[in-house]
From TrEMBL:
<dbReference type="GO" id="GO:0016410">
    <property type="term" value="F:N-acyltransferase activity"/>
</dbReference>
<dbReference type="InterPro" id="IPR020573">
    <property type="entry name" value="UDP_GlcNAc_AcTrfase_non-rep"/>
</dbReference>
<comment type="similarity">
    <text>Belongs to the transferase hexapeptide repeat family. LpxD subfamily.</text>
</comment>
<keyword id="KW-0808">Transferase</keyword>
<dbReference type="GO" id="GO:0009245">
    <property type="term" value="P:lipid A biosynthetic process"/>
</dbReference>
<keyword id="KW-0012">Acyltransferase</keyword>
<comment type="function">
    <text>Catalyzes the N-acylation of UDP-3-O-acylglucosamine using 3-hydroxyacyl-ACP as the acyl donor. Is involved in the biosynthesis of lipid A, a phosphorylated glycolipid that anchors the lipopolysaccharide to the outer membrane of the cell.</text>
</comment>
<dbReference type="InterPro" id="IPR011004">
    <property type="entry name" value="Trimer_LpxA-like_sf"/>
</dbReference>
<keyword id="KW-0441">Lipid A biosynthesis</keyword>
<keyword id="KW-0443">Lipid metabolism</keyword>
<dbReference type="GO" id="GO:0103118">
    <property type="term" value="F:UDP-3-O-[(3R)-3-hydroxyacyl]-glucosamine N-acyltransferase activity"/>
</dbReference>
<dbReference type="InterPro" id="IPR007691">
    <property type="entry name" value="LpxD"/>
</dbReference>
<protein>
    <recommendedName>
        <fullName>UDP-3-O-acylglucosamine N-acyltransferase</fullName>
        <ecNumber>2.3.1.191</ecNumber>
    </recommendedName>
</protein>
<feature type="domain" description="UDP-3-O-[3-hydroxymyristoyl] glucosamine N-acyltransferase non-repeat region">
    <location>
        <begin position="22"/>
        <end position="89"/>
    </location>
</feature>
<keyword id="KW-0444">Lipid biosynthesis</keyword>
<dbReference type="Pfam" id="PF04613">
    <property type="entry name" value="LpxD"/>
</dbReference>
<keyword id="KW-0677">Repeat</keyword>
Amino acid sequence: MKFTAEQIAGILGGEVVGNPQIEVYKLAKIEEGTAGSLSFLANPKYQNYIYTTQASITIVNHTFEPEQPITTTLIKVEDAYKSFSKLLEYYNQVKLMKSGIEQPSVISEGVTYGDHLYLGSFCYIGKNVKIGNNVKIYPNSFIGDNVVIGDDCILFAGVRIYSETEIGNHCTIHSGVIIGSDGFGFAPSEDGTYSKIPQIGNVILEDHVEVGACTTIDRATLGSTIIRKGVKLDNQIQIAHNVEIGENTVIASQTGIAGSTKIGKNCMIGGQVGIVGHITVGNNVRIQAQSGIGKSIPDGETIQGSPAFNYGDWNKSYVHFRNLPKIVADLDNLKKKLS
């Protein structure tokens, strides 16, 4: 896709200084700009690059006045950073503006779908699936029986949605995600073997949820595994059966949450955190990366460590951890003197 400076200025409400018909078809950092690229200048420490960049168009703040000759066409806006972000969002919308049903694909009996569906090739849609308006399902995806998908959702290539899953409006599910696979439920037998416990619940994603690539969310044993409104999950996260994650909580990569644990609203959980099952994490909790959570946490706590404890206490203790060899040596010397 190509855009002229004039078109971009129209989208951003900006002023063109230079050639209004010059075209761009790619994005670049200002220091790496080449012909045909669009860049921006927001941070003053990068201002020197405006005089050497080969970018065809550069978005700048309206207060910017060049002190040397420049070759790039300028688009002056109120806030260059915000305008560039707006342009990225617009570009992404245009890039994802697909519709129609590609072949080969399978749509089973009883399926209903709204306007402007995009269904990529090699997709399978199971029986009695309900799909809303403006939904995009990219190639090689599987949607099981009786799944419900709301309006304005995007499911990228290779997503697997098991039967009975319910997905709200404005959700984004990235490649490799598996939603609704069996929870890890096995009962030990007297002979040392394990018998599988049927997992007959489902998964519910409320509105405005985003699930990162290769994350897995298990179906409940009974009832539902629930991801509440506005939750953002990073790549490679494991959510076990009957877990509930509260509104607007964000969780970083490689975190694992064991079965039946409840996470509150507005929590921030760092990468590689492990959380045991059947506990409650309160609202507005902050958990630092690589922490191990073995008991319930009240509202508003910030914790770190494995096993985790209060963040302030952990920082104080860490000073002593680092000095432990010296402390031990001092104790040995003290013992010798006393004896």
